[in-house]
User: Fold this.
Amino acid sequence: MVDVSQGTAPEIGAPTASARSRLSAYALPIFLVALIAVSGIVSPAFLSGSNISNMLLQVAPLDIVVIGQAFVIILRGLDLSVASVMATAAVIATGFSGQNSDVLPIVLIAVGIGVATGLVNGLLVTKRSVSPFLATLATMIVLQGFRFAYTQGAPSGNVPPLFRQIGSATWHGLPYNMMLMLVLAVVFGVLLSRSRFGREVYITGGNPTTARLLGIKAARVTVIAYIVSRALAAVAGLVLSGYVGIVDNWVGRGFELDSIVAAVMGGISLSGGRGGIAGGLFGAAILVVVFNAVLLFGLPVQLQIIIKGIVIVLAAAFYVRRRV
Assistant:
């Protein structure tokens, strides 16, 4: 007779629990690989070298935005103005002579605008208790007005060759913008997961009361998070300007929602205090794969939108299931 009180049942279940735990850690990458495999079966052209390179070029700017968006969402906020910051940076990139000698002032001005607007939004959220939705929406509208006033309706200059190189060229098949994104992901990933500031971000986002009791200056942490988000959005805008080549006032449109969806789909909780940059990057990759696949399949626009929505729901459900 077996004495189950001695732990026989838990021992039998232990390997299963362990395997389930290992599987849950890689749920999102597994979903991405499965999505790529299915797309490749439906259309062999999907897995061609040129198409893969094109997807890598497309995902890098979105990933850069997601890195910054992650900081804000972990703090229970969101940034609706990242696309407007991107467009403003792209417009500024065409406002000079179009030579590489202008790269430094362009970067300084574009990132400076991102930092300034991030500072304003951070102060509005922390000092005036304005909701992140309204604060960032206001910034989005202000920057739109600035762009139209600056360009008189439409940009007319050229993007410096260096931006074109970074935004659209490759080195042995690996896009330069992807290399830049990976560097930024490592730097800000370490900042978020290994630094004191990163711990303060998680504590403040997870439980503001605990953060206050621990002496964490939540207002400072929040302001820095918005500055990081805007600065990275400006960098993404400059990278995207090099990719598209011809800039208009709406470059980056949709990135505000795509970055939020990618972050949440990657496990960054809207309720704050949970998630990481790596998950957000996988979420962005899933979105780009879906966008690319439905276009490559030549499906009607209406059906494309439906399929995108279904895949996003499936990916989100897959993530939620593995957390339960």
